[in-house]
Amino acid sequence: MSLRNIAVEGDPILRKKCRHIDEITPRIIKLLDDMADTMYYENRGIGIAAPQVGVMRRAFIVDVGDDHGKIEFINPEILETEGTQTYCEGCLSLPGKSANVERPARIKIKAQDREGNWFELEADGLLAVCICHEYDHLEGILFTDKAVGEVHVEEKDED
Ligand code: ZN
Q1: Can you give the residue range of the structural domain that contains 104?
Q2: Which of 9, 72, 102, 134 is catalytic?
Q3: What is the value of pTM for the model shown?
Q4: What CATH number corresponds to the domain at position 51?
């Protein structure tokens, strides 16, 4: 298992637009594996995007604990969105913060898997929320940019 450091709010890398992945090299595969390790290791992580581990590339992973399990998205494109839903979101890069965000209720997305094959996926509920949240990371957007109402900040306990 290999963990990577998570970039936290204030790190300029979280505000940059990520670059297309032209070739899925062993280095990219290792990045995906490390991202998954880091996501599962961190408490309540259900998604992680490459810039959150300091890599400006268009890739993210989600696992909302449903039948899909872990899904890797390389060079994702959101094709369609429909309706709206509001969910209270958090982020590994903004520890202790949460806010309601309005997202599409349903989305259709296409992306490449680690073999380079394109796939399409339709998602709703939490999976759609999570995919939109992670996609935003590739554009340098954080959930607090889209907060509806107040951003809640949890008091940190001293270790
Ligand atoms: Zn996030």
Answers
A1: 12-153
A2: 134
A3: 0.95
A4: 3.90.45.10
